[in-house]
C-alpha cells in the first residue's frame, strides 16, 4: 500500500510514525464544513479596491440584492464566504481552468464547482453532446438508453459496483445508501467519522464527540433527536474507537460510512492500513462498509479511492464528476444488495428527474475524456507541482504549513501537522487562511472559501496556471 499512497501528504507523510495525537476537543460542531454553517471571520480589509484594478462592485450589488431574496444570499452556505469573510464573488462564466466574475475579474479556479469540473469547465465536447441531446428534449421521466450507457461505464470502472441507481445529488445518494444498508442488514445503527460530510440528510447531521461511543446529537435545529439516535461517531483514523463501537453495539451496526480520503475537513488521507482494517472489522461484524466517493469517485483514479487503495467496499456513493457539471448522484454495490431497491426489491426510493438525459450525457462524455490514457498521471503531475510550490513558498515566508495531494485532489493547512483527523485540522490558523484566501483572490486565484475544504485541479489546468498560482502565493505569503 505504501506505493499506492506515494502522492500523499508531502509534508506530513514522513512524520506519520512519530505523530502526536492531540486530544480531541470535546463535542465539536460539524459547522466547519463548507456545506454546513461556517464560522464567521471578521475581515478588516475593505471589500473592494484593496488592490489596484481589483473591484468587486458589481458582485457586491448583486449579492446585496440576493441577500434579500435567498437565505444568506446563496443556495448553498459556503458560497457566502462566511468562513473567510469579505465579499463573495458572483460568477459570470467559466471555461477550462478559469472563471470570470461579473466585474470582469479572471481567476484560476481550484474549486471546479466543488469537484465536477475535472476535465475543465464547459468542455467543448460535453457542450456539443448536450446540445445534441437537448434537441430531443430535456426530461423524459421514462427509461432512456443514456442511463444504460452511463450505468455500464460506472459499473465497469468502480470495483464494488455491480448495479447502480442514479439520483440527483450526493445527499440523495447517501440517504438512499443508508436506507439500503439498514434494509439489507435489518440493523439500525451506523458509524460515521468526525469531519466526514455525507450530505445534509438528518442522520448524518450529527455533532461529533470525543467519547468512545458518542451517541448522535443533532447538529442543526430541526433535526429530530430520533433521526440521529442511531448515528455513532468516531474520530477519523482511530481504529480503537471503531473497535470499541462494534464491541459495545454488537450485532446492531448496519454500516460504517466514510470518505476514504476526506475532503470536507480539508484534505485528510487515511493512515496506512486504516481502510484495510475497516474492511476487516466490518466483515467480522456482519456490517456493510460504505465508501462515500461523491468527491473521490473518478477523481483519485478512474475507479475512485477503492481502485487507488485496492480496497473494495460493499456499497459506494457517487456524485459530482459522474454528472459532468449537471445534477447527479448515484449509489451502487453488490447485486444481491442492490436488488433490494424498488422495484426489484422492497426498499423504496424514487426520483422525478433521476436518470435525466442531459445529466447522463454530461456524465458519459466527462468519463470518456477521463478514460483517455494519461489523465490521472497528468492530474498527479500538476497537482504535485502546485502543492509543492505552495508549501515551499509558505514555509520560506516563515509560516507553519503542511499539506498533501492525491491525483487531482489537494489541501494545505496553516499548522505544522501532520493532519489525520478533524481535531488535527482545527489546529490550523483559520484567520491566516482567510487572509491568504483574500490575497489570492486579488491575485486572480480562486481557492475554496474555507480552510476545511479540499482543492481540485483539472485536465484543463496548465503548468502556466500552476506557476502563476505559486508566484501569487509567494507574494501573498509575504503579506499575511
Ligand atoms: C463526500 C460527500 N458526500 C456527499 C456530499 C453531498 O453531495 P451534494 O452536495 O451533491 O448533495 C458531498 C458534497 O460535497 C460530499 O463531498
Brief descriptors of the model:
isomerase, EC 5.4.3.8, PyrdxlP-dep_Trfase_small, 480 residues, 14 helices, 4pyrrol_synth_GluAld_NH2Trfase, 8-stranded mixed β-sheet, binds pyridoxal-5'-phosphate, pyridoxal phosphate, 4-stranded mixed β-sheet
Notes on the structure:
Its EC number is 5.4.3.8. It is an enzyme of class 5 (isomerase). Homodimer. Pathway: Porphyrin-containing compound metabolism; chlorophyll biosynthesis; Porphyrin-containing compound metabolism; protoporphyrin-IX biosynthesis; 5-aminolevulinate from L-glutamyl-tRNA(Glu): step 2/2. Its cofactor is pyridoxal 5'-phosphate. By secondary structure, the protein is α/β, with parallel strands linked by helices. The chain folds into two domains: 57-121 and 374-478, Aspartate Aminotransferase, domain 1 (Alpha-Beta Complex), CATH 3.90.1150.10; 124-371, Aspartate Aminotransferase, domain 2, CATH 3.40.640.10. Helix content is 33%, strand content 13%. The protein is built from 14 helices and 15 strands. The chain has helices spanning 57-69, 124-134, 145-157, 170-185, 225-228, 239-248, 274-284, 304-309, 335-338, 357-371, 375-396, 422-425, 430-442, 463-479; strands at residues 91-95, 98-101, 106-109, 163-167, 189-193, 214-215, 231-234, 253-258, 288-292, 315-318, 329-333, 402-406, 409-413, 445-446, 455-456. The strands form three sheets. The protein has an eight-stranded mixed β-sheet with strand order 4-11-10-9-8-5-7-6, with helices on both faces. A four-stranded mixed β-sheet has the order 1-2-3-14. The protein has a three-stranded antiparallel β-sheet with strand order 12-13-15, covered by helices on one side. β12 (402-406) and β13 form a beta hairpin. α2 packs antiparallel against α10 and α6 (239-248) packs parallel to α7 (274-284). The protein is globular, with a radius of gyration of 21 Å. Residues 1-49 and 208-214 have low confidence and may be disordered. Pyridoxal-5'-phosphate (PLP) is lined by residues 35, 114, 169-171, 174, 197-199, 259, 263-264, 292, 294-295, 319, 329.
Amino acid at each position: 500500500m505504501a506505493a499506492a499512497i506515494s502522492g500523499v501528504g508531502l509534508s506530513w507523510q514522513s512524520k506519520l510514525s512519530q505523530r502526536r495525537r492531540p486530544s480531541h476537543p470535546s463535542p465539536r460542531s460539524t459547522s466547519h464544513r463548507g456545506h454546513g454553517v461556517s464560522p464567521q471571520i471578521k475581515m478588516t480589509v475593505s471589500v473592494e479596491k484593496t488592490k489596484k484594478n481589483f473591484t468587486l462592485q458589481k458582485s457586491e450589488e448583486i449579492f446585496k440584492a440576493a441577500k434579500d431574496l435567498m437565505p444568506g444570499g446563496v443556495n448553498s452556505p459556503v458560497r457566502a464566504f462566511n468562513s473567510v469573510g469579505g465579499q463573495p464573488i458572483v460568477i459570470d462564466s467559466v471555461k477550462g481552468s478559469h472563471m470570470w466574475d461579473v466585474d470582469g475579474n479572471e481567476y484560476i479556479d481550484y474549486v471546479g464547482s466543488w469537484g465536477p469540473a475535472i476535465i475543465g469547465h464547459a468542455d467543448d465536447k460535453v457542450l456539443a453532446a448536450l446540445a445534441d441531446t437537448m434537441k430531443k428534449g430535456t426530461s423524459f421521466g421514462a427509461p432512456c438508453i443514456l442511463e444504460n450507457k452511463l450505468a455500464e461505464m460506472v459499473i465497469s470502472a468502480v470495483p464494488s459496483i455491480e448495479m447502480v441507481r442514479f439520483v440527483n445529488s450526493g445527499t440523495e445518494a447517501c440517504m438512499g445508501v443508508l436506507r439500503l444498508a439498514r434494509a439489507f442488514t435489518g440493523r439500525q445503527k451506523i458509524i460515521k467519522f468526525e469531519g466526514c460530510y455525507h450530505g445534509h440528510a438528518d442522520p448524518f447531521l450529527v455533532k461529533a464527540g470525543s467519547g468512545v461511543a458518542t451517541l448522535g446529537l443533532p447538529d442543526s435545529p430541526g433535526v429530530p433527536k430520533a433521526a440521529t439516535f442511531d448515528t455513532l461517531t468516531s474520530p477519523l483514523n482511530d481504529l480503537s474507537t471503531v473497535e470499541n463501537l462494534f464491541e459495545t453495539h454488537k450485532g446492531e451496526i448496519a454500516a460504517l460510512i466514510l470518505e476514504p480520503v476526506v475532503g470536507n475537513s480539508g484534505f485528510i488521507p487515511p493512515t496506512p492500513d486504516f481502510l484495510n482494517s475497516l474492511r476487516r472489522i466490518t466483515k467480522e461484524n456482519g456490517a456493510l462498509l460504505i465508501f462515500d466517493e461523491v468527491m473521490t469517485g473518478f477523481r483519485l483514479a478512474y475507479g475512485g479511492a477503492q481502485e487507488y487503495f485496492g480496497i473494495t467496499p460493499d456499497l459506494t456513493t457517487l456524485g459530482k464528476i459522474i454528472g459532468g457539471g449537471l445534477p447527479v448522484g448515484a449509489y451502487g454495490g453488490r447485486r444481491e444488495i442492490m436488488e433490494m431497491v424498488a422495484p426489484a426489491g422492497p426498499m423504496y426510493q424514487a426520483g422525478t428527474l433521476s436518470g435525466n438525459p442531459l445529466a447522463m450525457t454530461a456524465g458519459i462524455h466527462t468519463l470518456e475524456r477521463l478514460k483517455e490514457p494519461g489523465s490521472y498521471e497528468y492530474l498527479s503531475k500538476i497537482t504535485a507541482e502546485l502543492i509543492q510550490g505552495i508549501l515551499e513558498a509558505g514555509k520560506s515566508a516563515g509560516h507553519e504549513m503542511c499539506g498533501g495531494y492525491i491525483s487531482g485532489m489537494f489541501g494545505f493547512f496553516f499548522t505544522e501537522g501532520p493532519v489525520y483527523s478533524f481535531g488535527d485540522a482545527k489546529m490550523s490558523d483559520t484567520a491566516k487562511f482567510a487572509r491568504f484566501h483574500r490575497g489570492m483572490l486579488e491575485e486572480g486565484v480562486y481557492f475554496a472559501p474555507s480552510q476545511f475544504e479540499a482543492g481540485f485541479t483539472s485536465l484543463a489546468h496548465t503548468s502556466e496556471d500552476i506557476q502563476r498560482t505559486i508566484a501569487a502565493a509567494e507574494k501573498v505569503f509575504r503579506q499575511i
